[in-house]
Amino acid sequence: MDNIIEVNNLIKKYGENTVIDDISFNVNKGEIFALLGANGAGKTTTLECIEKLRSYNSGTIKINGKIGVQLQSSSLPENITVIEAFKLFCKWNNTIEDLELLDKLGLKDLKNKQYNTLSTGQKRRLHLALALIGSPDIIFLDEPTAGVDVEGRVALHDEIRKLKKQGITIIMASHDMAEVEELCDRIAILKNGKIAFIGTPIELTSIYLEEKVYIKTSSKIEIQNFKYSKYIEIKEEYYIFKTDTISDALLELLTYLKENNNKVLDLKIERESLEHRFIQIAKEEV
User: Fold this and answer.
1) Which of 87, 128, 132, 141 counts the most CB atoms within 10 A of its CB?
2) How far is the C-alpha of 117 from the C-alpha of 226, rounded, in Å?
3) What is d(CA 54, CA 282) in angstroms, rounded to the nearest whole number?
4) CA–CA separation, 48 vs 51, rounded Å?
5) CATH homologous superfamily of domain 3-204?
6) pTM for the full model?
């Protein structure tokens, strides 16, 4: 896929403190890309550099399209109405007032409500609408569902998926690992100003040791010392094995069962969650 954002050898310092330490990555056109990191890892500074909200010491950032930004918190006046905010941002962006955008995001019936009377979910939808003014190619979403209830979260996720289908590239920052795993094509994890991991959520959950294989069979397995799969226990009719080489372990187990005319009734692979992998990376020594 074509790169819509290219970050090369980015360095940002505050005095003698290096907060972004020579990082490089690309974002593909039309993908949902998450930039993750613990507090102080440098993700917010990186995003602000890409958004042109903050200068940097060296490196290059190439953006091949127009951007829109949905900030985590807003400085909108409390008494401004939805339609007033919308018209104000349209004027700033020198674009027509397309009220259909408010309708698409469920804000049409709220257009005369003041900002301070909106729920958290409604405010998030308004922030997203303001970011979409001017038909940007790239949208930055900072904690898009923070503080939103379950119903609002589902609605916002649906809107994010619709944007992706329209070919819009989405850059997310989120502490909600379930959200990241559900929505994102790729993720980058920052640690101490460096990229500790970049790849798909599945790749992240596959890079550590000791995955578990749950297997239910038509007859008893004679437990023995397999080379790649180590027997742990039987639980709810499943034999449970752990392994650090899942493909070799599966081949070993299935070959054994076939040679012994033992049918596989069910097979499951258990990996640690994305959140657990993220925590593991955060705790690793650099």
Assistant:
1) 141
2) 63
3) 25
4) 5
5) P-loop containing nucleotide triphosphate hydrolases (3.40.50.300)
6) 0.75
Residue keyed to tokens 């309708």: 103
Q: How far apart are CA 260 and CA 254, in angstroms?
A: 10
* Segment-wise mean pLDDT, segments of 10 residues, the chain, 286 residues: 90 93 95 89 89 94 93 79 94 88 88 92 88 92 81 84 93 85 91 90 73 91 86 92 88 93 92 74 60
What is the DSSP secondary-structure string of the chain?
Answer: --EEEEEEEEEEEETTEEEEEEEEEEEETT-EEEEEE-TTSSHHHHHHHHTTSS--SEEEEEE-S-EEEE-SS----TT-BHHHHHHHHHHHTT----THHHHHTT-GGGTTSBGGGS-HHHHHHHHHHHHHTT--SEEEEESTTTT--HHHHHHHHHHHHHHHHTT-EEEEE-S-HHHHHHH-SEEEEEETTEEEEEE-HHHHHTSSS-EEEEEEESS-------SS-EEEEEETTEEEEEES-HHHHHHHHHHHHHHTT--EEEEEEE---HHHHHHHHHHS--
